[in-house]
Design brief:
signal, elongated, eight-stranded mixed β-sheet, about 675 residues, notch signaling pathway
Length: about 675
């Protein structure tokens, strides 16, 4: 018994010595202690701040990015430094931003390279000056919707078209901090002498449509693995339209802008110049006009519309026109036949190229009504005097109106009279169109303010019709430059972003992250459009802003949290603490989703094409795949050679332990026999 206990103690001592020998190197590190499993996970993995490219679908197939199957992707990180770099094994490519377009075009045409690309990490650009142009959209964006035959015109010369391809590997845009982290990691991989790259990226970008094998919009909607793109547009009238009166029978001057953009990366659709500069100019123009008295005496009615989903098949403008045809509640105060002229404010953030801002007016046809809009813009320009805001009619050599919401009106009625105000003539001045680099550094606030002043005065002149314009009143229409700066900060920057005072005075933002103007998806039944529970922050802000600026005081001064009691009243600021206030305003939400989908029996269905709707015939019907989680993290994986060494070391320890026990036992037995 004593011999057995002694043997056990000796064996335990030997194992302890060996264990300490193995653990000593680990204990001689930086002194950090791991006190829990989360501490261990944090020490092992680096979570990377990034923005994914996701899977979108249409009636003919897929675009965007996804893991190729239902499993995570793990691959070593290799940094590309020039366009001719090759891969020797399946790898995660760390790609400089200036090589992005060329790389994805190369991948689409090089099957050998494609087989070895497991994932792509795009380095962030700290300063736009490092890159002269980057546009993943086509050279003629959404050309299928153009009402003219020339679809080869390069409106967007910088366009590469890479965002419209399908990639069966994950792609993420890195933040600036993550870019520095990944560069260090890739440098460590390059320094390994034996060719083994221990640092890997793990991608979790599994799309539900990939798992369900639904590869187009019709099948994924049927199998409930996707949702249609969509959101909410907003329109308002100034002054409010009174139902039952003759006022709403006035001819309508419709001023429009867009609120959504697109990008290769879903959550980095900023769109500073295209189209948010136009949205800011429109809101500022409404603010300027709201200070004018006796607008009800004007011969024409001013109506403002902000469309959502325009980057994905002109969803907002097309749905707006469909609702007008159907006499839907969301637009029952507007008679489509009374819309006489349309003035759209497009990309207006880059008009200051010299000393003074210079804009271009793109007219739809040569109708007298379109000419009146051009004349009004010229008159407004002259009235601004020393501000020297120049307006030039776009070149007659252009094939027609550039990509804009006005195309929806023209396709609906070829005799539509309208003008789009832009900061370019024949080619986009925005070299970062539909890129994450179309950020606040890409626009000029004075250009937007000039466009707002020009639009506000032009709208007043148009609403005055053929009567003599009150020059004294016209000259009092001045824009609030501080409001322009504030809107830029609220809608385009991370700080303050949607947490700015102006936004928080009207809504309670659902997100504190940096603003992104991707349209999103339409969740469920669109019937209750006037109180949508899931309208995005931008739509809700625009609704409250327009309702406030176009309102007159209500008789009921009590606070509100939703509906107001009297007809014609709406509740502004219902979300803010303490409740909102009821005002008289004609401000409405309008659903913005494809005219080719219908919500029925608690599900979305694709409708057959209708020959009477030419834009519906070419509508791709965009949808977005569901996903469970999206993640990207980096960690080190030991070489298999090291694993073999560990195994051999373990076998050696086992053999040594056995020998030690055997020798010890023999020795102890001899000692016991002597005694």
């Amino acid at each position: 018994m004593a011999a057995g206990s002694a043997l056990s103690l000796i064996a335990a001592a030997i194992c302890l010595v060996l264990a300490l020998a193995v653990l000593a190197p680990a204990a001689s590190g930086d002194g950090a202690t791991l006190e829990s499993v989360p501490d261990l996970v944090k020490a092992m993995y680096i979570n990377i701040e990034s923005f994914p490219c996701v899977r979108l679908l249409n009636l003919s197939g897929e675009i965007g990015c996804s893991n190729p199957g239902s499993e995570k992707i793990i691959a070593p990180i290799v940094r590309f430094r020039k366009g001719s770099d090759r891969l020797v094994q399946p790898s995660t490519v760390l790609l400089p931003l200036d090589q992005m377009s060329d790389f994805f075009l190369r991948v689409s045409n090089d099957p050998e390279l494609l087989r070895k690309v497991s994932g792509v990490l795009i380095e962030s650009s700290g300063v736009n000056n490092n890159l002269q142009e980057l546009s993943p959209d086509r050279k003629f964006p959404q050309d299928a919707f153009a009402p003219y035959s020339n679809h080869t015109h390069d409106w967007n010369p910088a366009g590469s078209g890479i965002m419209w391809n399908r990639y069966d590997f994950p792609v993420f845009l890195l933040s600036e901090e993550s870019t520095q982290t990944l560069r260090k990691v890739s440098d460590k991989n390059e320094k390994t002498g034996n060719g083994y790259k221990p640092n890997v990226a793990e991608f979790d970008l599994v799309m539900q449509t990939t798992k369900a094998q639904t590869h187009d919009s019709a099948s994924c909607l049927k199998e409930h693995s996707c949702l249609p793109l969509g959101g909410h547009s907003v329109w308002a009238s100034l002054p409010p339209i009174k139902n039952g009166s003759t006022e709403h029978q006035k001819p309508i001057i419709l001023a429009v802008a867009s609120q959504d953009s697109a990008s290769f990366f879903r959550d980095r659709s900023i769109g500073s110049d295209s189209p948010i500069s136009g949205l800011i100019a429109l809101l500022t123009a409404v603010d300027a006009l709201s200070h004018i008295h006796d607008l009800s005496n004007l011969k024409k009615q001013l109506v403002f519309a902000v469309f959502n989903g325009e980057a994905w098949g002109y969803l907002g403008s097309r749905k707006f026109l469909q609702q007008l045809d159907e006499g839907a509640d969301s637009v029952n105060e507007i008679n489509r036949l009374m819309i006489e002229q349309v003035l759209e404010i497009g990309s207006v953030g880059k008009a200051v190229t010299g000393e003074y801002p210079s804009f271009y007016a793109h007219a739809a046809g040569n109708s007298p009504a379109s000419k009146k809009i051009l004349d009004a813009l010229q008159s407004a320009s002259k009235s601004l005097g020393s501000d020297n805001v120049k307006v030039t009619q776009a070149a007659s050599s252009n094939p027609g109106v550039p990509p804009s919401s006005l195309l929806s009106f023209i396709r609906k009625n070829m005799s539509t009279s309208g003008v789009v105000l832009e900061d370019f003539d024949s080619h986009f001045s925005n070299r970062f169109y539909h890129s994450h680099l179309d950020n606040p550094a890409n626009i000029n606030s004075s250009s937007i303010a000039a466009a707002a002043a020009l639009a506000a005065r032009s709208l007043y002149i148009l609403a005055s019709a053929d009567s003599v314009v009150d020059l004294m009143t016209l000259n009092t229409i001045k824009v609030n430059v501080s409001l322009v700066e504030e809107l830029i900060g609220c809608l385009l920057t991370c700080n303050p972003g949607l947490s700015c005072g102006l936004v928080k005075s009207l809504i309670s933002p659902s997100s504190s992250s940096c603003p992104s103007h991707y349209v999103g998806v339409f969740l469920d039944d669109p019937s209750g459009t006037q109180f949508p529970s899931y309208a995005d922050d931008t739509s809700r802000f625009v609704w409250n802003f327009l309702a406030d600026r176009t309102s007159t005081s209500a008789g009921n001064k009590s606070s509100c949290t939703g509906k107001c009691g009297d007809e014609g009243e709406v509740c502004i600021g219902a979300e803010v603490e303490g409740g909102g206030r009821c005002v008289v305003s004609t401000t409405r939400y309008v659903p913005a989703y494809s005219t080719r989908v219908k919500f029925e029996d608690n599900a979305w269905h694709v409708l057959p094409a209708n020959s009477s709707d030419p834009m519906g015939v070419v509508d791709p019907v965009w949808t977005e795949s569901f996903w469970d989680t999206i993640g990207l993290r980096v960690y080190a994986v030991q070489d298999s050679t090291y694993d073999w060494l560990i195994l051999l070391a373990g076998l050696g320890i086992t053999a040594a332990s056995y020998c030690a026990v055997h020798v010890g036992r023999t020795y102890i037995l001899k000692v016991v026999k002597r005694d």
